[in-house]
Design goal:
This protein is of the alpha/beta class. It has helices at residues 16-27, 32-39, 43-52, 65-76, 83-86, 88-99, 137-147, 158-166, 191-194, 276-287, 309-316, 332-341, 356-367, 379-398; strands spanning 55-57, 60-62, 102-103, 109-110, 223-230, 236-242, 248-251, 297-300, 319-322. It has a 5-stranded mixed β-sheet, sandwiched between helices. Strands 1-2 form a two-stranded antiparallel ribbon. The N and C termini lie far apart (98 Å).
């Protein structure tokens, strides 16, 4: 063991001088919060230090600065053997719950479908996958506490299991066992990268918090919610749903010329059909057919297909708002409608097969269904009633 380093640290961790101060104050009978206040540390830091680094004398814990520093140095030695690599019993438990065979009620193993050998890449979302117990790491970690309440060696965090799967060189679990995770993801996406979004187009003026209060109570028609439903081979259909009447309109987004033939160009046009220009033109050509009173606002998610929302607002007069990140409930009407549309456009199918007329037929079928929330009227009937009331109000004002 190398000699202890008693030099002052950066301040993130307790230094030897602070440990000496803790030992003295503890000997004088000071409580944890009083010690924390004197050292300007969090009470949890002091509590954890006294619990983890105290010495055992005569069956009781006695805190000594030198002993505590020795415990700190011992834990700081690297490299450390991973817990799964050092504990064969724990490793067997984790591996069986993660990748063990599925069995019939009488105990016979079920092989499941034949799968291609693991090649180290992310597996396709829509192909046969290996059948296994497939407990999640979090389920395994918490089940250990229930099955081995008195065995401290049978403990591991779900993060340690993930690291054993995703980090090369941990050596405890085979990398191909990532195929048994529910996502089947072979590469871990860092949280910071997953949450990094190109939201330069979204400013405070177009956030949902700036939307008029009348939109929330659904009393006034003309406020819409929109989104895309995505299909196979980068195909898409746009959806517009009116909040008050639940009236639905579908946007035809065909692929542009050259898709699949010309090489992809950086910052070039989105040939798949749902780029910013294509979506802007589709929304404009669809919503401009409505009376001006029914073109009040449109709430969309933060997809880049709405990067030209300013031009859309100028061309149609409709106000554009964006929902908060990871908040689909703020567009609940549209999300529920997209779920209904999946009856006609299932996931994993090519959505470019359908023409504009076929999309209009599906929208008409949806608008012709009676809805409980509308008192068993159809969206088409409810929208027609609103249009009639608007027309009568206009006639009365003119007269």
């Amino acid at each position: 063991m190398p000699p202890s380093d008693f030099k002052p640290h950066s301040g993130r961790y307790l230094s030897f001088a602070e440990r000496e101060e803790i030992a003295i104050l503890r000997a004088y009978g000071y409580g944890i919060r009083e010690i924390a206040q004197r050292l300007r540390r969090a009470p949890s830091t002091i509590s954890r230090e006294l619990r983890r680094n105290a010495a055992t004398r005569g069956g009781r814990l006695v805190y000594r600065a030198v002993i505590a520093q020795w415990h700190r140095d011992r834990r700081a030695v690297r490299p450390k053997a991973a817990k799964l690599a050092a504990n064969h019993r724990l490793r067997s438990y984790v591996q069986d719950r993660l990748a063990g065979l599925i069995r019939t009620p009488d105990g016979r193993p079920v092989a499941g479908p034949a799968t291609a050998p693991w090649n180290g890449r992310n597996r396709g979302r829509r192909q046969d996958r290996r059948w296994a117990n497939s407990w999640s790491p979090e389920q395994i970690a918490n089940r250990l506490r229930a099955e081995f309440p008195d065995d401290g060696s049978m403990r591991i965090s779900h993060e340690a299991i993930y690291q054993a799967l995703f980090i090369q060189g941990r050596g405890a679990l085979k990398r191909e066992l990532v195929a048994c995770l529910r996502t089947g993801r072979a590469l871990r996406v860092p949280r910071a990268r997953a949450r990094r979004r190109g939201d330069g187009m979204v400013t405070p003026e177009v956030m949902i918090s700036a939307r008029p209060a009348e939109v929330d109570d659904r009393a006034v028609p003309g406020h819409w919610e929109g989104d895309l439903i995505i299909g196979l081979n980068r195909s898409a259909i746009g959806t517009l749903v009116e909040r008050t009447t639940r009236f639905t309109m579908l946007l035809h987004l065909p692929r542009m010329a050259g898709y699949g033939v010309e090489p992809r160009m950086k910052n070039g046009p989105a040939l798949a059909g749902y780029g910013a220009e294509a979506v802007r033109d589709a929304i404009a050509s669809t919503i401009i057919t409505l009376p001006e009173q029914l073109r009040q606002s449109l709430t969309w998610d933060r997809g880049k297909e709405m990067a030209q929302h300013a031009q859309l607002r100028i061309g149609t007069g409709i106000q554009i708002y964006f929902a908060d990140p990871y908040s689909p409930w703020q567009r609940g009407t549209n999300e529920n409608t997209n779920g209904l549309l999946r009856q006609y456009f299932p996931k994993g199918t090519d959505l470019t097969r359908w023409s504009r007329d076929e999309l209009e037929a599906v929208a008409a079928a949806l608008n012709g269904r009676p809805r409980k929330t509308l008192g068993w009227k159809t969206p088409a009937e409810t929208l027609d009633e609103h249009l009639r009331s608007l027309h009568q109000a206009g006639v009365a004002t003119t007269g």
